[in-house]
Specification:
Elements: H1 3-8, H2 10-24, H3 28-41, H4 52-68, H5 73-77, H6 81-91, H7 97-117
Helix pairs in contact: 2-4, 3-4, 3-6
Length: 118
């Protein structure tokens, strides 16, 4: 990956298009699960999306293997796709935007209360 690709994000675009092409080859139920996974993992992305790419790649590989084995999405992911995505993101050490905003708000409130109380 060159500096230019990193700066423009063209490497991510290429990888994203490859993910989409692979997802199109999945059976209908697996493809629907892929769309749901994408929606649940997006809040765990950073500004560039570089943290999201390995998580999406791993989830897509799991769906591909499940489809190749003839198993259903339910067998691989269970009933709670949102929970699966949260566990996957937490396993990668990612925090959502909401987590970061909450921490920042708590720090600011604590600082303000410290000034008022002191």
């Amino acid at each position: 990956m060159s500096l230019w690709e990193t700066m423009t994000g063209s490497d991510l675009t290429r990888e994203w298009n490859a993910f989409q092409a692979r997802a199109e080859a999945l059976p209908v139920g697996h493809r629907a699960a892929w769309e749901e996974i994408k929606g649940h993992l997006l809040p765990y992305s950073d500004f560039t999306g570089r943290k999201l790419t390995p998580m999406l790649g791993g989830a897509l590989e799991l769906l591909e293997e499940t489809a190749a084995d003839g198993r259903s999405v339910h067998e691989a992911l269970g009933d709670d796709i949102a929970g699966f995505c949260a566990a996957l993101a937490r396993g990668e050490g990612a925090r959502s935007h909401r987590d970061r905003w909450r921490e920042r708000l708590n720090r600011n409130v604590a600082r303000k209360l410290g000034r008022l109380g002191g």
